[in-house]
């Protein structure tokens, strides 16, 4: 005889709605991240630029760019347009949603492009994976600088940051000090201290930066 399994009771009380809201927000963020990855993946597979896919699907270039950066949540109608334009089933945009969300696999050159305030042309930032919600402990970004600039934005953020130099040569400022970074050099510092490139000596420059957030877990 098969017994029906009782549904797990939902939490009640003053904080229950806040918990459900937080959980819903994390699920929506995860869904948006998965759709962003799939849209970009299928677009690159067929060799279309953002503008070309926008024209083929009837969407604006700005909206498509926001979708690929997980800054906008597409409707089912929008996904239907994209599935037709890319010749893939609409369900393919959700592939990976039910898989383990603590694994990010990024092929070379396919990191998601992000824009930093004050960034210049020829400066590319590719995020290599970022957890959502309480699982977010670090953020790896591959930075490629192809053009010189006389003025650089100054950055500040919570946590700590590690820079590992891969190619080129530059001077990097942290607080009142400047450090010469060449391939193989590493620099770690408190992210709340003002920091950023000070001088680009040998182009192209490429380095991996890893930001770490939150307190270390206890024993």
How would you describe this protein?
With 219 residues, the chain is α+β, with helices and mostly antiparallel strands. It has 2 domains: 74 residues, 434 Repressor (Amino-terminal Domain); 101 residues, Jelly Rolls, CATH 2.60.120.10. Helices cover 26% and strands 27% of the residues. It is built from 4 helices and 7 strands. Strands 1, 2, 3, 4, 5, 6 and 7 form a 7-stranded antiparallel sheet that branches.
Structure, briefly:
The chain is α+β, with helices and mostly antiparallel strands and 219 residues long. The protein folds into 2 domains: 21-94, 434 Repressor (Amino-terminal Domain) (Orthogonal Bundle); 112-212, Jelly Rolls, CATH 2.60.120.10.
Low-confidence stretches: 1-12, 16-20
Q: Find the structural class using helix and strand composition.
A: alpha+beta
Our Rg estimate from Cα atoms comes to 21 Å
Q: For this structure, what is the CATH class of the largest domain? A: Mainly Beta
Separation, N- and C-terminal Cα atoms: 46 Å
Count up the domains.
2
Please report the number of helical segments. 4
| Percent helix range | 25-40%
**Total strand segments:** 7
What's the overall average pLDDT, rounded?
Answer: 79
CATH architecture of the largest domain: Sandwich
Could you describe the largest sheet, including whether it forms a barrel?
Answer: 7 strands, antiparallel
Q: Any idea of the CATH topology of the largest domain?
A: Jelly Rolls
CATH H-level homologous superfamily name of the largest domain: Jelly Rolls
% residues in beta strands: 25-35%
What is the element string, with H for helices and E for strands?
HHHHEEEEEEE
- Which word captures the global form? elongated
